[in-house]
Amino acid sequence: MRKRRKNRSPSEDSFRAERVIATDLDGTLVGSRACLEAFLHWRDEHPEWQLVYATGRSMASALELVQEQNLPEPAALAVDVGSRIFFRLRCEPGWEEDHRWRRIAAATWRPEAVLRLVRGMDGFAVDTVDDTGDPWGPRGRISGCWDGKEETAIRVEKLLREAGLPVKAVTGRDRLDVIPSTSGKGAAVRYLVRKLGARWVLVCGDGGNDRDMLSAGFPAVVVGNAEESLRQGQWPSSVYIASRPYACGILQGWEHWYGEAGVYPI
Ligand SMILES: [Mg+2]
Q1: pLDDT at 129
Q2: CATH topology of domain 108-180
Q3: How distant is the alpha carbon of residue 118 from its chain centre?
Q4: Is-contact 247 36, C-beta < 8 A?
């Protein structure tokens, strides 16, 4: 990664993308090879749509998946459930972190204090901690497997908030993430859309940690294989529930929002 001044926000002078598909990776873009192939074929014909990946993975893990699945390089990634944002360098291969976003997302983040309180809690087994020394490793979140009970997430969040730690507990099928209350995929995608200057946006997801970006006010699609609570949930009118799974659901969502009348500026 190229070194630049720490307080610089990379998108200011280099990145613009008018049309953006901001999508979760696991279970949304990735999960069905046939649907991914259909999506890649569609994308070849619509290169004006830039991609942004919003994932619970760390940067290192997200890039591994991009390589392994041969995914298109996105204009940017929101990783660690939105706690970090990386932009693609425009004139050379590589990525640059948006340090301004990092400061916003992590302004009140006290990982040691969070860890002290959640280690050993019933129903939540922490296995991923903040700041492992790897610059692209997990940051700005403390995560682990959980028992899938709503009351566990409520208990974790309550305990931390009562200790004066402004955090939120975000849950998915298998994992519970504790992140700063200023972070999350929704806040990160709003920030990214502004930085990229995007006017046409489609947000796509399948799991609990996608909830806030799906309801961020942009045209959005819940893919057909999404968690039941998302498929049955109460959503604003900007959220379309697809019947088709994975990346086929993304295409169905794009068709719904942009396919006929053509434009739906935000
Ligand atoms: Mg997912």
Answers
A1: 86
A2: Hypothetical Protein Ta0175; Chain: A, domain 2 (3.90.1070)
A3: 23
A4: yes
- Name residues whose C-beta falls within 8 Å of residue 73's C-beta, 6 or more positions apart in sequence: 66, 88
What pTM was computed for the model? 0.91
Gap from CA of 42 to ligand 1 centroid (Å) = 21
What's the CA-to-centroid distance between 141 and ligand 1, angstroms?
A: 17
| CA 57 to ligand 1 centroid distance, Å | 10
Instruction: Please give the average per-residue pLDDT across 183-203, as a whole number.
Output: 96
- CATH number of the domain at 11-103+184-259, out of 3.30.360.10, 3.40.630.30, 3.40.50.1000, 1.10.10.60? 3.40.50.1000
Structure tokens at 67: 């390589």
Distance CA 177, CA 156 (A): 10
Confidence label for 14 from pLDDT (cuts 50, 70 and 90): low
Give the distance (Å) from ligand 1 centre to CA of residue 206. Answer: 5
